[in-house]
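Technical annex, item 7. During the second reporting period the consortium partners agreed on a shared format for inverse folding records so that results from different sites could be compared directly. Each record opens with the tokenized structure and is followed by the designed sequence. A conforming record, contributed by the partner at site C, is shown below for reference.
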């Protein structure tokens, strides 16, 4: 991992995505989404959630995933598993022009019904 890369884990502590700068990659090296300010967008430019304090939140303000150093008051996060060795990343695409920072709703310290791997199709 490079020094700007973070691993994002699901509610079971399994590694799902890698955040490299502002681009989210899967473990096959495919870019799956972007972070613009606090907003998370998929590769098609659709708003999917929020990134705040090393936690991925859905659009309703519930927890979908987290980075290793994350803390959520009132919610126990699982121990992260060791991530697999990633494939080489495909080139980083430009974030769509429609992807802008958005205001995050009130955050709820509860797990979302959405799975992290479903956040960025």
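Designed sequence (site C submission):
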């Amino acid at each position: 991992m490079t020094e700007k890369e973070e691993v994002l884990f699901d509610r079971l502590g399994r590694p799902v995505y890698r955040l490299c700068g502002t681009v989210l990659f899967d473990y096959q090296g495919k870019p799956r989404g972007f972070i613009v300010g606090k907003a998370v967008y998929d590769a098609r430019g659709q708003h999917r959630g929020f990134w705040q304090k090393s936690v991925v939140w859905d659009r309703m303000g519930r927890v979908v995933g987290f980075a290793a150093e994350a803390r959520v008051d009132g919610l126990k996060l699982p121990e992260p598993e060791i991530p697999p060795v990633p494939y080489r990343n495909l080139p980083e695409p430009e974030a769509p022009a429609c992807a802008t920072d958005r205001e995050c709703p009130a955050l709820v310290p509860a797990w979302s019904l959405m799975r992290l791997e479903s956040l960025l199709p």
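The chain has one domain: 5-119. The beta strands are 5-9, 15-20, 23-25, 31-36, 39-42, 47-52, 55-58, 62-67, 108-111. All partners now use this format for quarterly exchanges.
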